[in-house]
Specification:
This protein is of the alpha/beta class and about 625 residues long. Helices cover about 30% and strands about 25% of the residues. The structure holds adenosine-5'-monophosphate-propyl ester.
Amino acid sequence: MTKISSFSEYQTEYNRSVNDPEGFWAEQADKFTWQKKWNKVLDWNFEDPKMKWFEGGQLNITENCLDRHLAERGDQVAFYWEPNDPSEKNIQLTYKQLHAEVCKFGNVLKNNGAKKGDRICIYMPMVPELAIAVLACARIGAVHSVVFGGFSASALSGRIQDCDCNIVVTSDGAFRGAKAIPMKETVDEALEICPSVKKVIVLERTKTSVQMISGRDVKWKDEMTNAATDCPAEVMDSEDMLFILYTSGSTGKPKGVVHTCGGYMVYTHYSFENVFQYNGGVYWCTADIGWITGHSYIVYAPLLAGATSVIFEGVPTYPDAGRFWQVIDKYKVSTFYTAPTAIRALEAAGLDFVKPYKLDSLKVLGSVGEPINEEAWNWYNENIGKKNCPIVDTWWQTETGGILISPLAGLTKTKPGYATLPLPGIQPILVDDKGNELKGNGVEGNLCIKFPWPSIIRTTFGDHERCKQNYFATYPGLYFTGDGCKRDEDGYYRITGRVDDVMNVSGHRIGTAEVESAINTHIDIVESAVVAYPHDIKGQGIYAYVICTNKNKDHDSLRREILAEVTKVIGPIAKPDKIQIVSGLPKTRSGKIMRRILRKVAEGEMNNLGDISTLLDPAVVEEIKNGAL
Ligand code: PRX
């Protein structure tokens, strides 16, 4: 693994990665344990699309995450686990202990019928057992599909059905701040319509009583007591599936993004070492393992790098808004990676929550998930980093597997709001709406990538055509990210946000279409349109326009019922912040909703609606403007 150590070395490596990508990535891949070396580094085209890395190579990613480290750092802590409630005892797992737990749980999965290639759904709180379950799947060659614990039964069943899981790993419940949230109960409800699931493995966390269905449900603890500790790593082809992770798009149901073993391993490790310039010390990423950031930069990359990390169960504001800073001091965290929405919330809480803490162990700060506004960047820099820690604003996506555009900590000169420069191996290109390349600096357009990198999405599970249409058809020959982007006079990249109908709410990616279809399940709603609007803390808030057929309906109860409906269909993260009840939506003569107008009204830009002459019924706009929230 080449760890870049100066900006000029970055430039040299970057050029080499473009001029000789296969040589460049073969050299990075060579550092890992392969059971058989690959025959071909890269085979690709963006038309089918086909992306294959290190074909013919055989490996198991957990051997590289765990076994490889045992001799040298078996007694080093791999994970510190910090519980939701600071008065509960924390846990630490060394590499040796983690290896043993993963092997045992691998056997538990096998004892419950899991085989190589099976899909296993993991729906758990942020406890060490979540990471153990993920790694145990990889150990035995099963494909994990982690579903974020905040999703509803309906969202969970959709994801289980889509990839035909045969096992679900869950917990009785989850602690989040002051609340205990049921999980097993949600699984039970979801499974009413998931006949493929034969076994449910239940961890005890909240000690709430749960129903155990005989023959189907087993307890984590009982199963682990009986499991053998020896679990040889399954031999995987480089292009065998490692995991599926569902993410929202602009249309239809969430899609199952597929990542494979070899390329994902090589790229996540490479990006981790270089972006964070990780050099020992304690690393903490505050994401949830239910999202890609947690997969890549809590579970896989830090373990591949032999790092010591913190896994945190709680939330930034419980018991108070000093919780993050307290955890940093407690574990002497040197690399801290969080999301702008958390930074903004903690900034709003005030400096009194920061002052009691030293924060002097910090060396590198990271940001991920959404554009970071300049004010939040400066606050983070001044009050947390004490102007002494480089901030890496890392841009990437579920589909990219790892960070693509980011400063390298301490090497790349940073600029607030800018993800700065592409990592070696990443060839960004900006295009206009017709697909023409915008050359040179000082341009703004749609962000695409023109050459594959090892952890690029391989397909969308069960529907390759969807993968093609979503990412490779808009601008033929290019991977289209869905993001808008500026390249400034220095050649620095600044992501401006999504250019499609995907919202980014507190760093969570939510499709407008998904929220609309959830709202439309309400009996009194005939149609709805959902748009995002700027929100001080969440980055974007959700604004819903709904048409209600029941003229006698009380608006407050309607709003409450809509929120309940969205919570039921998707989960609380997708609840609209504002719901405006309207009698019509602005549509073109061909029946298309003009979202541009709805967005403007939601943003409060009433007097700047642009051309509305093509509308079927321009009067609707007046009503919407007058009733704006
Ligand atoms: O719009 C971009 C935004 O988050 C989207 C990807 O969301 P998801 O797949 O859930 O992955 C989030 C974590 C990697 C992107 O299309 N995004 C992510 N990071 C940044 C960002 N926008 C601006 N700056 C970032 N650093």
